[in-house]
Amino acid sequence: MEYNIFEPWKTLDQWQKDYIATEGNCFLLCGRQSGKTSAMSIKFGNRAVNNPNRIIGMFAYTEKQAYNLFFKTLTYLKAKYPNQLITKGAKKPTKHQIHLKNGSQIMCYAVGLTGEGIRTYTLTDLAVDEGAPMAREVFIALMPMLSVTGGSMDISSTPRGKEGFFYECSKRDDFTKFYVSAEDCPRHTKEFLAAQRDIMGKLFYAQEYLARFLDDIRRVFTDKWIKDVCKGKRRPFIMSHRDYFIGCDVARKDRDEFTYEIFDRTDRKNIVQVENIITRNVPIPQSARRIIALNEQYNFKKEYIDSGGMGITVCDILRESEANKRKVVEINNASRRYQEDGEERKKGILKEDLYENVVALGDSGKLTLLNDEDLIISLQSVQYEIINGKAKYFGNNTHAAEGTTRGLWCNKDKTLKPCIF
Predict the structure, then answer these.
(1) Which of 2, 147, 330, 414 is 20 to 30 A from 260 via CA?
(2) How far is 112 from 389, CA to CA, in rounded Å?
(3) Distance between terminal CA atoms of the chain?
C-alpha cells in the first residue's frame, strides 16, 4: 500500500512495529522524517486504549513540538477506534488533554528551558519528543513523575552532537534502543538524500539523516547562554527617541522564513531585543514593504539585510524609499577569506564574525534577547564544525538566529548621536 501521511499506521516499517510492541524505557535515535513521531503516537494511543487509568504525558521543548505528537495520537485514536471511546462534553479533547472512557488520559505540554512549569504531574508513561536539545534541568523535573507509579520513559530525537542528557541515554543499559537511519527509510528516495548530502555536506548530513552522534559538531549557543540571555519580554508600546536597528534574514515566497529582528541599542551596555517577527510564504516585494512600514514605527538607525540571492532585491526596493535608502547595510554571508601575498585576508563580514559578536555580547552581559519560542528554537539549532581551523555554521532552523546576528552588528556601528548646541 502506498504510504499516506494521514494514516501511517497502515504502512509501518518493521522497526516501528518492534518499537510499538516494546515495554519499558525506550531510546529512539532517528534520522529526519524516518517516522519516529508517528510510531510514538501509535504506541501511546494503543497503550491508553488497552490499559485503563493510564496517565500519559507527552513533552517537547515547545508547544508546537509537543502538540505535533499529541495531535497525531488524537488522529490515530479517532481513526482506529470508535469515536465513543473518547469522552465528550466537559471532558472533550482540548489542545492539551484527551480523556478516554476507560479512565486513561493523555496530556501534552511544552517544557521550556528548565521544565519548572511542569513539575506538578504524576504519570504512568512519559514520552519525550525531540529530546536532544533539552537541558538537563528539564529531565530533572520530568523523571520524578514516574517514581510513584514505576512507569517508563520513551525519548526520541535526531542527535545534536555528543553532549547532553539525550546523548547520555544512548549509553544507559536501562533503555531498549532503536537506531534508524533515513537511508533505511523506504519513503526517502536516493535522489533526495543525495541532493541533501550535497547541500549540507557530509558531516551535517551524517547527523541529520544518518542519526550519528559526532564529536566534530557543537552548538554555538549553550543552554546556559540561552537561559542567561533570552529573558526579555516584548514592550507594551514602542518607546520613542531610542536607537533602533533591524536585522533581516531573507527568504523567497516559497522557501523558508523571512525574519525581522529589532533591537534597542540606546544603551550600548545593554542592547535589548524588542521584537522578533517571522513570516512564511510572503512575496519579496511585500516583505520589503514590511521593513519600510516598520521603519515608520521605529525610525531605524540602520537596516542590516541579508543581500545574498534574493536579498539584493530587498535592498534595491528599500533604496527606492527616501526614508530608508541611507539606512540599508548589506551583510552577505557569501563573504569569504582569501590569500593575498601569502597572507590570509577576508572580504566583507564573515558569518563567524557575526556569530562571535553575538556570543561575546551575551557572555559580557550586554545583551537581552526575547524569551520567544521561535527565536530560542532557532538559536538551539545553530551548530558549527571546524574545517581547516575555521568554523562552519549550519542548522535546520537558523533563520531567526541569522537575522539576529545581522541586527546585532549594530554593536559595531560607530554612528554618533547629533549634538545640538
Answers:
(1) 414
(2) 35
(3) 80
What's residue 120's pLDDT? 85
Do 194 and 263 belong to one domain?
no
The conformation of residue 412, written as its DSSP 8-state character, comes to: G
Collapse the DSSP code of 154 into the 3-class scheme (helix H, G, I; strand E, B; otherwise coil) and give the result: strand
pTM for this one? Answer: 0.74
Grid-cell match 521593513, residue found? 291
User: Domain boundary residue among 183, 208, 233?
Assistant: 208
DSSP letter at 149? T
Residue entry with cell 555554521:
393
- Do 183 and 332 reside in the same domain of the chain? no
Mode of pairing for the β-strands spanning 152-157 and 125-128: parallel
Q: Clarify whether residues 249 and 187 are in a common domain.
A: no
- DSSP assignment, residue 419? -
Burial of 196 (0-12, 13-18, 19+ CB in 10 A): middle
H helices, E strands: number in the chain: 13, 19
Same structural domain for residues 346 and 379? yes
Which of 4-18, 209-223, 322-336 has the highest average model confidence (pLDDT)?
A: 4-18
Distance, CA of 10 to chain centre:
30
Say yes or no to pLDDT of 85 above 80. yes
Amino acid at 232: G
The parent domain of residue 110 ranges over: 8-208
